[in-house]
Amino acid sequence: MKKLLQWLFRKPVAWLAEKVSSSPDKEAVFASLNKLKADIEKSKGTNGVIMPFEMEGAKYIVFSDQHKGCKDFADDFAPAETNYRRALQHYFDQGYTFINIGDCEELWENTPKAVIESNRLTLLEEARFLQEDRYYRVFGNHDLEWNYLIQQNQYLKPIFGEKFKVHEGVLLKTRYKNQEYAVFLTHGHQGDKKSDGNPFSKWVVAAIWTPIQRFLEVTINTTSDSFELVDRHNIMMYEWSATQKNLVFISGHTHKPVFASLDHIDRLTRQLEKAIATDNEEQAKVITADIEKRKLEYAGKQVVKTMAHPSYFNSGCCCFSDGDITGIEISDGFIRLTKWESSDDGPQRKVLEEAPLDYIFDSLI
How many separate domains does the chain show? Predict the structure, then answer.
């Protein structure tokens, strides 16, 4: 009976959650991102932080959208926790600075107290970075409560310590060929009128979707399953980034990895076409297997647009249903889209895409 109910309710409930939880508006996206960037540059309020970096020596790992829950059937993070914690150990040992760009915890579905208690060990792994001044956190729409000092002081500072801060954005700045270049990071919900703190959307997810999800024992990452929607939003954020001079924009929110303004499934498809054209059967087999693995997550993709200006990146998410996580690395003069996946030998890091940072900068306006 439960399997029948799962089959009957999975799509309509996912559709409802999608319709009330996201609706990006291009004009609002542009206005919100312009204001946030300007506020950070003017040091207005506590919106963000500016950090200088050297292209060759810098080491940053950017993760987003863990959506840490309460270890129940509505917890999208649970399958990915092992890969995530192993990744954090790797980046800590390698001297990376961790920039966590939002929706770190799932506070639309759970209380802050319950989430903290369920994820204390993982949060302590994150806190190690802050102890060495290598941790920056940005809030998203699903953990918007962390933007307020009362919640920070009550729930997060007991784990992270008094140095803990939450920002809306981070601006990394460097010099290249006698010009200033910037890497701008924020969650990406700005201008999404149904996600940006909307109380009705939050109520639907908490009061309707989550109880059904728990009862039916299914975990559905609705944002990752809706590629018509997230493609449209990624395109809006790309179009904003293309209007900026000497700037690379990295966001999360959509749960779909984007590298140099081209989403990963498009790159895989192009690589497959090239492998077939050159009769490289072994490579074609590997790429085909990778595409098949992502079939569910990329099903229903309808909006297709080539985004040639390499100014936009998306970290993807740390809550894919198969336990994989994706992130953006900046290290040793390169920018990379990486994935951590399970194997017989434990969690493994895989580079999906990479490019020299100077090549990206040379390609910007």
Answer: 1
